[in-house]
Each structure stands twice: as C-alpha cells, then as structure tokens.
Amino acid sequence: MVREFSAGGVVLRRTQDVWEIAVIEPRKESSDPVRSAKKSAAKVTLALPKGLVDPGEKPDQTALREVREETGLTAVLIAKLTDIKYVYVRTWGDGQRVFKIVSFFLLRYQSGDIDNLSEAMRIEVRRALWLPLSDSVKKLSYRGERDVVRRAQKYLESHAEVH
To answer: What is the pTM of this model?
Structure first.
C-alpha cells in the first residue's frame, strides 16, 4: 500500500469576542458536466488547508506553506494538535489504495487577506473564508477534521495565554 504524508493547519484569529478559523472550499470538478451541475447544487465541501509534505520539509513547515498557498494568510505556529490517519483509493491514475497520515497544527493568524490566491492555486481551491470557530465543527465536511477543530477548541480553553 502506498503511504502519503501531509500537514495542515487550524488558523485562528480573534475578532471582537469571537474566534474564527480559516477554511477552504476545494475545487473538485468532474469531467461530466451533468455530474458537475448536480454537485454544485449539493452541499458545499469545506475543509482545513493541507497538502503533501515536500522532500526535505518538516510537517510544521508544510502546514505554514499550505496555509499561505491555499488561503492567502501568513500564520505562526502555536502547537501540534494531532495526526489523523485514513485509507483512501486514488480516483486518478493507478487507482491504488493509499494509507495517509495528516499532521495538523494550531496556528495564529499573522497577516494577509483571506482568499488572496494565485491563479495557479484556483485549480485546487475554489475559495477560502473565515468561519466562526463555534460553527466550524458543524460546517466542516470531514469527520477527522471536525475532530481536529474540537482539539483546537480544547487547547484554547486550557491555554489562556493564546487569548
């Protein structure tokens, strides 16, 4: 079985009395126009920014890079939250089963404008947006990522220095 290693981030910012996180809507186009039209009418997919760890890169560096590329934001590392592990079957190319580990990090927003992406990144990301942290567990599409955000919430509750 093929193995893949990725990393991503939960980017936090505080506005007034509300914590928000940066999320993306991945672009998942189908080659079938009828299927694409049906998908666009279906529920929107929302996810955390993440991507493959490049050779020679550490997972925390990957998380910061992927956040910058997929959201337009610069962030600073607070802490590692967790690793999530799952198996998927590639829907492209060889159709192999892949064992994937994604390391997620808690990050603090530093600068940048959300959704300020390069045209090249628009192939992967339809849009990036801020979501209230309190709503994000209900709105994120993937169970593993919802669990990651719950960990971020617990971290905030137990680390007053982040506030």
So the answer is: 0.89
Q: Please state the CATH superfamily assignment of the domain spanning residues 2-162 in this structure.
A: Nucleoside Triphosphate Pyrophosphohydrolase (3.90.79.10)
Higher pLDDT, 94 or 42: 94
Nearest residue to 129 (alpha-carbon basis) of 33, 9, 18, 47: 47
Secondary structure of 41-104 in the HEC alphabet? Answer: HCCCCCECCEEECCCCCCHHHHHHHHHHHHHCEEEEEEEEEEEEEEEEECCCCCCCEEEEEEEE
- Number of Cβ within a 10 Å radius of residue 82: 16
User: Under a CB-based contact definition with an 8 Å cutoff, are residues 153 and 162 in contact?
Assistant: no
Q: Which two tokens stand for residue 104?
A: 């997620």
- The structure tokens listed for 29 are 């186009």
- pLDDT for 33 equals 41
Residue 128 β-bridge partners: 24
Q: What is d(CA 46, CA 129) in angstroms, rounded to the nearest whole number?
A: 10
